[in-house]
Amino acid sequence: MLQGMASGSRGRYGGATWLLAIFILSGFAGLIYQSIWTQYLGLLLGHSSHAQSLVLMLFMGGMALGAWGISRYSERLRRPLLVYAVIELVIGVLGLGFDGLFQSVTGWAFAHVMPGLEGGALVAFRWALATLLVLPQCILLGATFPLMSAGYIRLQSGAQGQVLAGLYFSNSLGAACGALASTYLLLPAVGLPGTVMAAGLLNIAVAILVYPLARDSLAPVPASGQPPSGPLDAQRRSNARQVWLVLLVAALTGASSFVYEITWVRMLSLALGTTLHSFELMLAAFIAGIAFGGLWLRNRADKMESPLRVAGWVQVWMGLAALASMFIYSNSFEWVGWLMKVIVRSAEGYAAYNLASGVIAVLVMFPAAFFAGMTLPLLTLALLRSGRGERSIGQAYAFNTIGAIVGVLAAVHLLMPLLGLKYALIVAALVDLILGVMLLAHVSTSRRASWAGAPAYAGVLGLVGIGASVMLVQFDPLVLSSSVYRHGSTRLADSTKMLFYRDGQTATVAVYEGLRGADTVRSIATNGKVDAGMTTTLDMVPTTDESTMVLLGALPLALRDGYDRVGVIGFGSGLTTHTLLGDARVGQVDTVEIEPAMVDGARLFGSRVERAFNDPRSHVVIDDAKAHFAASPRKYDLIISEPSNPWVGGTAALFSTEFYAFIPQQLNEGGIFVQWLQLYEITPELVSSVLSGLLEQFSDVRGYLANNGDLIIVAVPEGKLPALSDSVFSQAAVRSDLARIGVHGVADLQDALAMDDTALRMYVPLYPAARNSDYFPSLMLNAPVARFQRAFTGDFESFMTAAWPMLPTVERESSRAENGQRLPLLLIEKRRRAGALERAVAGEHPDGLTVEETVQVEAVRGLAAACTLDAQPVVSTSLLFQLARDTIPYLAEPERRRLWSERAWLGCTAANPTVNDALALLSAAADGDHGKVLLHGQRLLDGVDGTALMADSGTGYYLFGAMQHAAWSMGDSIRAKALMDQNWQRLSAEAQRDGTLRLLTYMASTDDPKGSPERGAATR
């Protein structure tokens, strides 16, 4: 029971204590709405900094309107708790229907209204639609706190401070729990629709729980306050000045608090990572601090002689705590670095990492947030004591919320871009310190003399705190850009030269130079994550990033004779745009980048990307990608999407089913779509979740590998992709860019093909996964876990460089022609090494063999020279199969025949049946005689050494795979199924887990004749 309840109502309203628990549920639901509506409206408005700010203005502005509006009428309401219950019920009903309403209305708008609008009319329509969708609920949410406070205060007579602080605590505690539950429990289980419905159900539950109390809570309407004593006019003027001072403080402290929150989130993102999980942990830490500040105040507020004096000191301590947070933050990189070294990289380890991240966020945010949790209850209590009545609750809440809007806009668009994180935080702390001094000065003029020195003491403390922060706190860019949350290194190398560092509107962007061996590499990073890196001069060996960025532009240029209009998503270093503009057949190129600082930083790549900045055909657009394309009055011939990694907050939406359904609508007839997808820090299941959505929307898709970690997907919505042509090599600038990464002709481009349409469509069922969707964001939720686990999807490289030619290859005269490449693509490198192996077996001494390859060659030659292949047939077969894996798929026909059919290097003829059949199988494989491969393979399986051969991981893998490949090539799915039924269990566990072998078996066993490799002959 709450103490202080009116005696006549003690028994009747004993359940009023239950209101605190009920209000926890209300705060829980309210935070879910804020989080989920942000994601919903991001689908309509985009995720640019301006869009995010405007979305927040809708939320906070609506809540301010609700609080201000209800403040004008709450004193006239005889049952404010009943009105509160009705509002919670209405919010709940709207929450239950929000997803259906949103999807139907936005679907109608995208299909029937937006295509006919342009420019400002389109922007105005989208914002009007967003406002209609969420503003009513926001206004209703804003009315809940004043109504609950008014109703509770009437039940808890004489305990205004206890009520206000208690409700502030319970509502904030619920919000902190809601932040965690929505991300870690609800979103993974039921997606956005289920989560927003859960919030609606909670609101309805709150209404039901409040109703019995609300029905019986008829209480006298309180007077506006005690009539002032003394000269009436002077007292009124004094009260009016105090009211406006308090409301001004409420607004400004709301602004400073949100500057703290946004700045802390950006700061901690550099240490903990830019993921949804880390953001929600930070948000929960901040709100928890506010909650416990209210809890501390709850049993003390009504005993305070002067709430304004206490509020003044609270403001001072809040400012000092915010300054102290920078000292704590400076150690966070060391803490995270230690965590990355001691925590096991597993799913359980990621849970431990999140727990530790939450502790770090609490250490940074909690102290200042603790004091922030006291400010609004104290200021509201001061207004109540001044005779303002219940309307002061809504007024203080409204001013505080309006201040929050100002704080968000100032932090994102003014303080961080102009002053950086450190001084943005110092400015906010200065505001709180000044507010504290103002309140103390106001109180000291009307109170006893013993308080007169408080403003001076507070001022001195503030000056000392600010001076210490300015002089002692250093935000070292080499530390902030270390990406410690990925690699565990707490600082870039001392030799690193920082060239550009800016806290932008949506991310912190850095450009720096470092050594890679003897070469100097210049990199551009967002929030510590390197998005692109390239050498500073053309005489250095290119980076793998360069191969990806160049091929993103060059591959589509080899598919058509030109593009009038090209759209590129993500600026990065600008090299993709630069490559595209090297082709005179390209018209306009619109590069859409969400962060302006990214473009400014990329200028430092100079001549390496000059066409992106200087070519008149280049247009850089600062906007959210989907928002830009939706607003564009003209469609595109080519769209290239190269966003950051999917685990980065907000990026996963560019890999969703809805995005892939949206893209074809933005393409002209015959238009092409190109998608970059990283294969590092991601699992095969997550890759499958992306591919399943893309494949559903596009009729023909190919996957190319720029290196072992970067997949380039090329797709058309209708028809078939054309074959790669050599026309792009007639463009001197592009030809030069391609030559730098080891691509000298169309055959080299063809060799980058990893999977064709058939293989991609059969890959997806091998790794069943929920399709990544805007409404069920599996990628956003699971990609951070994959990053932490250092996951890697090697299936595409394995398939491309398989032991059997999975895709038809272009015959070359000699693999010797591949020597001298700068940065050879994977298959080109395989060809070069296969040629070296063939020459080594023949008795030559080529350069570049690894130690393992040298040992392999010497073992094979030793057995052959001594005619001892028959002595240990299983060992000999294993050596032969290993050599075949490294040579047959990559050698030109003359070399294949010389090595495996003519076999001049073999000193004598093998007599052992196992070795003899193994050599015969390899000869047939080299000649492309699939029938003989099956014949001799079956002999090996049935032979005396069959069990031993299949049990060996390498030998069984090659033998079984060679036979499945032969059956697939012949279109004999019945034989393939029989092979699988009879021999799959004989394979080692390692071979059974191999993705390439599983995919090949699945393809061979499928009755679809399109699985035949001849289908890809024209595309390779």
How would you explain this protein's 3D organization?
The protein contains 37 helices and 12 strands. It has 1020 residues and is α/β, with parallel strands linked by helices. Among the domains are: 235-467, Growth Hormone, Chain: A, CATH 1.20.1250; 529-800, Rossmann fold, CATH 3.40.50.150; 815-1016, no CATH class. The strands form 2 sheets. It has an 8-stranded mixed beta sheet with strand order 7-6-5-8-9-11-10-12. The chain has a 4-stranded antiparallel beta sheet with strand order 1-2-3-4. Strand 5, helix 16 and strand 6 form a beta-alpha-beta unit. The longest helix has 56 residues, at 160-215. The termini are far apart. 56% of the residues are buried. The model is unreliable at 1-14, 224-230, 813-821 and 1009-1020 (pLDDT under 50).
Give the overall shape.
elongated
The CATH topology of one domain is Rossmann fold
Any guess at the CATH architecture of one domain? Answer: 3-Layer(aba) Sandwich
Strands, total number: 12
Look at the structure and give the CATH class of one domain.
Alpha Beta
Instruction: Give the spatial strand order of the biggest sheet.
Output: 7-6-5-8-9-11-10-12
The biggest sheet, with number of strands, parallel, antiparallel or mixed sense and barrel status, is: 8 strands, mixed
List keywords for this structure.
Rossmann fold, 1020 residues, disordered N terminus, alpha/beta, four-stranded antiparallel β-sheet, 37 helices, Growth Hormone, Chain: A, disordered C terminus, elongated, 12 strands, single chain
Summarize the structure.
This protein has 1020 residues and is of the alpha/beta class. The protein contains 37 helices and twelve strands.
